[in-house]
């Protein structure tokens, strides 16, 4: 966004994380009495963390690379393993410099026959250049993108794992969309001026050409950089403009869960991100859960944004938990 081969060891780590999560649920009441008719599952941060690490194990998922393609196949396979219907939307998109980008938006649909739908999304590609790194020698090196990409997909995967057994009782279908080609926007070192249209390419393509003709959702939630240390998710400006009721619902849920420190009732900046074309082109009221660091000298997105420090060492399970549990509450108690 603009200021804006899985190893055997990794596979074992994912399995161990899932086993550690158990099956704890929160109790729910009868429909219509102010509490959920379906129990809200307990979001497992260990599982989400393992999914984040599994993506990073492929290396930077830069467009047109083997690591990118292999990770995309892994993401699609995980959603299929959870019983979701998966569509891989492929397109060749033009990068800021004219490079043809072989993109693949991954759409995983839970309860695909339901008329009422909710959209959950994140981007899965890595920034090709660490152009905000404090060391200029790193500006043309690829970013691991543990937070700026992998964390959002990791939360989506854990949500899908938890919600799939509840699909028939939720009363709504959920579409998990992993957008590609989000982070090929004009680098800071480019001689050409920045262009907002060079960002969020996969989301722009999907918004204009959805995976299902006439697709609509009641609302959408975009997850971007949702695993960083010290993250605070203020109310992003474009979200407030296009989907104020969704913003209110999410921030209220976070407060009720005790995560008000992660979701302060304050306004952040306005971000060019995947939710913009989803709102403006697809017409789906969609918000962006994205960190805001107003006092950070490197970037208001935080110190690791578009640097080589965006790695697993800077992923915080507590942040993943706060975001994942909040989104779960919104979905189950809507």
What can you tell me about this protein's structure?
By secondary structure, the chain is an alpha/beta fold. It has helices at 8-21, 45-56, 66-81, 146-163, 167-170, 201-208, 237-242, 244-256, 275-280, 317-332; strands spanning 85-94, 100-110, 117-123, 173-179, 219-223, 286-289. A 6-stranded mixed sheet has the order 1-2-4-3-5-6, sandwiched between helices. A hairpin with a 5-residue loop joins strand 1 and strand 2 (100-110). The chain is globular and about 55 Å long.
How are the strands of the largest sheet arranged?
1-2-4-3-5-6
- Tell me, briefly, the overall form: globular
CA-CA gap between termini: 29 Å
Low-confidence spans: 4-13, 24-36
Global mean pLDDT:
91
- Strand tally is 6
Helical region count?
10
> Largest sheet, described in full?
6 strands, mixed
Order of H and E elements:
HHHEEEHHEHEHHHEH
Q: How much helicity do the residues have?
A: 25-40%
Category by helix and strand content: alpha/beta
User: Which range does the strand content fall in?
Assistant: 5-15%
Radius of gyration: 18 Å
The gist of it:
The chain has helices at residues 8-21, 45-56, 66-81, 146-163, 167-170, 201-208, 237-242, 244-256, 275-280, 317-332, and strands spanning 85-94, 100-110, 117-123, 173-179, 219-223, 286-289. The chain has 334 residues and is α/β, with parallel strands linked by helices.
